[in-house]
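Worked Example 4.2. Consider the chain below.
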Amino acid sequence: MARRRQLYEGKAKILFEGPEPGTLVQYFKDDATAFNAQKKGTITGKGVLNNRISEFLMQRIAEIGVPTHFIRRLNMREQLIREVEIIPIEVVVRNIAAGSLSTRLGIAEGTRLPRSIIEYYYKNDALGDPMVAEEHVAAFGWASAQDMDDIVHMTLRINDFLTGLFLGVGISLVDFKVEFGRLWEGEEMRIVLADEISPDNCRLWDTKTNEKMDKDRFRRDLGKVEEAYQEVAMRLGILPEAGARDLKGPEVMQ
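Applying the procedure from the previous section yields the following structure tokens:
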């Protein structure tokens, strides 16, 4: 493995210095967390599967005209991405009531919403990623009005596309989280989709049985977590070269 300088480690990924200016290497871990990291564990092979699933979905999303930070997959656990300035807002799209929406508003889980709902959360682990409104985003300068217009437009396109894509393989897209960043090219700036799209940040249910096929299986101790991630990959036609075995990460420079 090449020696690379580690720049950041999150709950599910590590970012390393990229081979060229303006690039990063994103490494997918098997670590799993829930409830703002109060629950921790390992999902064997999750990093391999999420790398492949996110690669596939990012490529498909780019094909419908939504720019992303993704460049290419490097190996089973790593992908090359463009370095972006992350906007500290998590954008959540809800199509079916589940999770915190059901708890907050007393709506039965599984209730199809009359329209898709977009929510915003301030990206701050120490504060528990609190829910915020566009007024907070504007007041604290996290993103401009134009940035938010671009984000909403892209998010709705992503939702429409992914809803149809997953429905075609027998999966309901219940809700999902996306993040965006500012990509600077000289004096020009544009908003692009960043982070990842995988069963870690999507709620995915089988359309016939409503069986959960995402990280809720870990959150709720439902078992067969690895199998659920593998099933999503299989339905999307993604087959990791060496299965879901664990691999060593790159050597880190101190």
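The chain has two domains: 4-84+220-243, 86-206. The domain at 86-206 is CATH 3.30.470.20 (D-amino Acid Aminotransferase; Chain A, domain 1). Compare this with Example 4.1 before moving on.
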